[in-house]
Amino acid sequence: MNVSPIEEYWSEMDMSARSRLLLGSVGGKHLFEIGINCLESDPQLAVEILLSAYAANPLDGNSAQQLLNIEALLPLFPAPVAQCITVVAANWNCPANLSYFLRIIAKRDNLKIRSYILSSIEKEPSNLFWVQQGLIYAGANSDFEFGLQVLSAEFSAQLTPAITVSKAFFTFMDGDPLEAFKLLRIASEPFGIENFAHLAASIVLALGDKDLAVSLLSGSVMIQPWRSSETLRLYDLAVGLDDKFIPLDGKVAILLYSFNKDEELDGTLGSLHRSELGDAKIFMLDNGSSDGTSEVVDRWQSEFGERMVRIDLPVNVGAAAARNWLMNEPKVKASDFAIYLDDDVEVDPDWLLRFGAAVEEYPDAGAWGCKVVDHISPAVMQSVDLHLIQPSGEEGDGPEVDLSKLAPNPFKVSGLHHQLLDGGFFDYIRPCASVTGCCHMFRTEKLLDNGGFSLFLSPSQYDDMEHDLRNCLKGEFAVYQGHLRILHRKNTGAASRVSISQEGNALGNKYKMQAMHPRSEILSIMADEERLLQQDIEKKLKYLAEKGFLTS
Q: Are 314 and 287 in contact (CB under 8 A)?
C-alpha cells in the first residue's frame, strides 16, 4: 500500500510534538510551547513552529523577548520579521502601576477602558504594551473598529510586518474582506502565507472563492505538514462538509430544563421556533422556577402546540437530576436522538441539519456537540473540540487519586480556543474527548445505556463532561461539529460575577469528578484519544493526497 510522504511525516514525528500538534496547530502560546520543546529533537520543526507562534501574536512583547532569548534563532527567521521582533521587544514595557487599569477592567466599564487605553497610547506613543491592550480589549468585546483605531497610530517602519497583519485581521473581523485580503498579501511577504492560511482562507471564503481557500490551505499543509488544524479544515472544504445539511434519521427529542432564567429561556425557545425542526419534539422542564418562567413556557406552548411537552417540578432538583428526569420520559426513551440544550442559547435555523451531517460522517460517536460562542461578543469562543490533557508538571504516571490535594487527579481539557478569536480556525468536524453540555446530542439508546448524569455533581458543573468521560472509557468518543455555531447568553458587567457559593460548587464538583476517575483511567482515555486523532488525520491526509489536493 502506497503511503504519501505527508502521512509518513505524522507517524515519524517526535512523539511529544505529535501529541500536542494533534490538539491543533493554532494559538500562539500553544505553538510557542511546542516549538520550545522540540528545539533539540527537531530544530527545523521548532523554527517553523516558533515563527508561526510569533505570527499569531506579533505585537506581544513577552513572546518577542522570549524569542530573542533563544540563542541563534532570529537569523533563521526572515530578516524583516527578525527586525520586527527586536523592535517589539524593545518597545513593549509593562507599567509598574496598573491598579487603576485593572480596576476598570474588573468593573467592565467600557467607556473608561477605551478612553484610558487611547490616552495611554497618546502619552506613551512608543510603548506597544498599550497597543496590545487595546487589541485585546477590542477582540474580547468584538469592537473591531476600536482595534483599527488603535492600529491607526504612527509606528516605526520596522514594525510594518506586525502592524499590517494585525490590521488585516481586524479589518476582516470588521466586515471588509476585500481590504483585509490586500493587507494580508502585504503581510505575507515577510512572514510567508503559510503562517496565515486560516485567515486567508476565511477572507477568500467571505469573498466567495472556495477554490482559492482550498488552494491556500493545501499549500500550507504541503509546505509544513505539521499543520493539523489547516489539514482538518482543508478536508472539510474539499469534501463539502462545510455546507452539508442532512436531516437526522429518526425521531428527535429536544430536552430543555430551566431555573429562574425567563428572559434567556424566551430567547432560546424563540430561536427554536425559527429553526427547521422537522418532526422533532421539545420537552420543557421547569425546574421549580419562581420568576416568569411559567408564563414564558405558557406563551411558547401555545406556539409549538403538541410539539412541546411541558414538565413542571415544584423544586429545583439541579442540572444532573433534571437531565436524568428528561431522558427517562417515556416519549424521550422512544426517540432515536436526544439533544440537551441550555436555557440560555440561541440556535441557527439549520442546526439540526448540521448535526445530521456530523452523524453521517461519524455515525458511531458517543455524543455530538458544536462550537459555542459568546452571545454579546460572538468572536469569543467559549467551547470547541475538547481534549484531555494533564497540567504542566503533572504529566504521566502518579498516584491514582490523592485526596489530600485540591486537584486529587490533575487533568483538564485543552483550551486552544481561548488563545485566539473565531476567525474560522475551528471550522471542522472531528472526534474529541468531550463537547460542551450547552448543546449535547446523543443516540438515545447510548444515552440510556451510559447510566445517566452523576448526581454527585449537583446542582451543576462538570456532570456533562463526566458523562463524556464514561463514554470515552467505552471507546465511544464525542464528535465536534465546528460548522454549527450556537450563541450562548451570559450576563455582562457586575451581573456576570459568580457568587462565592457558585464558585465553591464548581471547584467542589471539579474535585469530585477528578476523584471519580483515577489517573490510570485518564491516561487510558488520553492514549486512546491520541490514537484516534492520529488515525483521523491520517485518513484525511490519505484522501487529500489521493484526490490531488496535496500535489504542487
A: no
Taking a C-beta distance cutoff of 8 angstroms, is the pair 471, 451 a contact?
Answer: no
What's at 484, amino acid-wise? L
- Say which DSSP state 428 is in: S
Q: How would residue 501 be classed by pLDDT, with cut points 50, 70 and 90?
A: low
- Total residues belonging to the chain: 552
Could you give phi then psi for residue 539, rounded to 5 degrees?
Answer: -60, -40
Lookup result for grid cell 490510570: 520
CA distance 495 to 75: 50
The pLDDT tens digits of the residues spanning 188-244 come to 999 999 999 999 999 999 999 999 999 999 999 999 999 999 999 999 999 999 999
Sign of CA dihedral 143, 147, 148, 149: positive
Indicate whether this model's pTM tops 0.90. yes
Question: Which long-range contacts (C-beta less than 8 Å, at least 24 apart) are formed by 499-507?
Answer: 505/459, 505/460, 505/461, 506/461, 506/462, 507/406
Query: And the C-alpha cell for 45?
Result: 520543526
Spatial CA neighbour of 273 closest among 303, 296, 231:
303
Give the DSSP letter string of 98-156: -HHHHHHHHHT-HHHHHHHHHHHHHHSTT-HHHHHHHHHHHHHTT-HHHHHHHTTS---
Burial class, 92, CB count within 10 angstroms (exposed 0-12 / middle 13-18 / buried 19+): buried
Q: Phi first, then psi: give them for residue 285, nearest 5 degrees.
A: -105, 120
